[in-house]
Specification:
Blueprint lengths: L1 E9 L2 E10 L2 E13 L2 E10 L8 E8 L3 E6 L4 E5 L9 E11 L1
Antiparallel strand pairs: 1-2, 1-4, 2-3, 3-8, 4-7, 5-6, 5-8, 6-7
Length: 104
C-alpha cells in the first residue's frame, strides 16, 4: 500500500475537494456527496492506495464524517482519511456519492 498527504475542503453543501501531492504531482478528487455536509477543512488528510493507476477516472464511494474525523472509501479500494481542523462539525453523518480523479 502507498500513501500521500494532502488537504480536504468542503465549503458546505454537496461538493468536497481532496488534494494530494505524490512525487511532485498534484492529484485531486472532486466529489459530489449526498446528503450535503457542513463546511470543514482538514489539512492532515491521507490517501491510501495500491497503485497510482487507482487515482484515475470516475468512482463511487461511501463514507463517514464524525465531529473531528473524515473517512471516504472509494469503490476501487482507495481510502481517504483525515482529522478535521477545529472546530470540526457538530454531528456524525454517513454519506455516499461519486467523484473523479484528475492530475492538476
Amino acid at each position: 500500500m502507498h500513501t500521500a498527504s494532502g488537504t480536504i475542503i468542503c465549503r458546505g453543501g454537496s461538493h468536497v475537494a481532496a488534494i494530494f501531492i505524490l512525487d511532485e504531482i498534484q492529484y485531486a478528487f472532486n466529489a459530489n456527496i449526498s446528503p450535503a455536509l457542513p463546511p470543514f477543512t482538514a489539512h492532515s488528510a491521507t490517501v491510501t492506495f495500491d497503485d497510482v493507476a487507482s487515482l484515475t477516472s470516475s468512482r463511487s464511494f461511501s463514507g463517514h464524517i464524525g465531529t473531528d474525523t473524515f473517512e471516504l472509501n472509494v469503490d476501487n479500494g482507495v481510502q481517504i482519511k483525515a482529522q478535521l481542523n477545529d472546530p470540526g462539525v457538530s454531528s456524525d453523518s454517513t454519506f455516499d456519492g461519486s467523484g473523479a480523479w484528475m492530475q492538476v
